[in-house]
Write a structure and sequence with these properties.
Layout (H helix, E strand, L loop, with lengths): L2 E6 L6 H11 L3 H4 L5 E6 L15 H13 L3 E6 L8 H9 L1 H8 L2 E4 L5 E5 L8 E5 L7 E5 L1 E5 L3 E3 L1 H4 L6 H10 L3 H15 L3 E11 L8 E11 L2 H11 L8 H8 L11 E4 L2 H4 L24 E7 L9 H5 L5 E3 L3 E3 L9 H5 L5 E7 L6
Parallel strand pairs: 1-12, 2-3, 2-7, 3-4, 7-10, 8-10
Antiparallel strand pairs: 1-11, 5-6, 8-9, 10-11, 13-16, 14-15
């Protein structure tokens, strides 16, 4: 039975103690970090946004894990390829997120996946992605430690442990998954395929301040959750996190599929929760993504009552072309501002998620009677 620890942490100034306690509850810090062992930390550094926007794993959270691991004598590095894949985007996200400063202060190596080789690998027992290109860095360490941020997401409803491993594959392969498998059930199976290969040895989730609402995972509303959630089984960590913010884990395809495939445990009855009791830390009034609450939603689509479409605000646009360059089906062209071909749009929300200026907002488009 997998064990997941929940520790209260009201502020990032206290996060190191919270993470240490979470690891002690799982068997002790030295169970996970050992002298001379090569450790790659994989935070979420997806967007060129500052810490207060709650889009990326908080820099003090990353710093705390680095220092804890360094104290044991482990050889620590941090790795990421930020969302979008544009030239220099990972470096920009690193600096804007505050994690670049942490890298400098702690003296660890940053593995910029975007600028390093990717290695093609077959994925055993795949459902969607039979193979893909993984960051070479994950093959050069003894363990990967997953440091996801708890946020809402239009396709997966939440982004956490499983989704964070998306950053371990080539940006063009990410576009391929979005464009070739746009249905929610297929896309999430692809994410589970990727997670099944990376399979981090430890997950420590930043749920101190998360993100809620329909504009997640980049421009939603920061939400104080006040927790560190950790475990060796990232699927179980996601299941516990989902429960804390009001979801039944198996209602989320990304957790349901991982559980059904035996890649991790998503059934709360089969997870041992240590530390805080879930009933004592459930977040009341957490704003889930509206697509989840669509009364007639279908796993393979967006339901029969409404969809959410990306709408563009010209006054916020700097004509950088990020949206057009990252649209997996080329539904956006620049003229000189973005023009969306609605017939081609697959509602993958890449434009919304990746726009550095927040020029896209998700808006409800009713398909029938308002029945929700």
């Amino acid at each position: 039975m997998p064990k997941v620890s929940i520790v209260k942490c009201d502020d990032y100034s206290e996060v190191k103690a919270g993470i240490e306690e979470s690891l002690k509850l799982l068997g002790g810090i030295k169970k996970f970090f050992k002298k001379g062992e090569r450790v790659l930390l994989k935070p979420n550094i997806s967007d060129p946004l500052p810490p207060e926007k709650a889009s990326n794993t908080h820099p003090l959270f990353v710093k705390a894990v680095i220092e804890i691991a360094q104290k044991t004598g482990a050889e620590v590095s941090v790795g990421e390829a930020s969302a979008g894949g544009g030239e220099g985007i990972t470096t920009k996200c690193l600096e804007m997120s505050g994690i670049g400063k942490v890298i400098s202060e702690t003296g660890v190596t940053f593995r910029n996946f975007q600028e390093e080789p990717f290695m093609p690998r077959d994925i055993p027992s795949f459902k969607v992605m039979d193979k893909t290109d993984f960051a070479n860095a994950i093959f050069q360490v003894d363990m990967v430690v997953n440091l996801p941020k708890l946020k809402t997401h239009g396709l997966t409803f939440i982004t956490g442990s499983i989704k964070n491993c998306f950053g371990c594959i080539h940006p063009e392969e990410r576009k391929h998954l979005h464009g070739t498998f746009p249905r929610r059930e297929d896309f999430t199976q692809g994410l589970v395929d990727i997670y099944s290969f990376v399979r981090p040895r430890l997950t420590i989730m930043d749920a101190v301040v998360g993100m809620e609402g329909e504009q997640g995972p980049s421009f939603g509303d920061p939400k104080k959750i006040g927790l560190v959630i950790a475990g060796e089984d990232g699927v179980a960590v996601d299941a516990v996190a989902a429960t804390v913010i009001g979801y039944e884990p198996h209602a989320l395809p990304i957790i349901k599929f991982a559980d059904e495939r035996g890649i991790g445990t998503g059934d709360m009855r089969k997870i041992e929760v240590v530390g805080e009791r879930i009933k004592d830390v459930v977040v009341k009034g957490f704003k889930q993504h509206p697509l989840f609450n669509n009364k007639y939603r279908k796993m393979e689509g967006f339901g029969s009552s409404f969809v959410m479409i990306p709408e563009f605000t010209q006054s916020k646009c700097i004509k950088c072309g990020t949206c057009a360059n990252n649209c997996p089906v080329r539904a956006i062209r620049m003229n000189p501002y973005p023009v969306i071909d609605r017939e081609k749009c697959i509602m993958c929300y890449c434009c919304h998620e990746l726009c550095p200026q927040g020029a896209y907002q998700l808006k409800i488009k009713w398909l029938g009677k308002k029945q929700i």
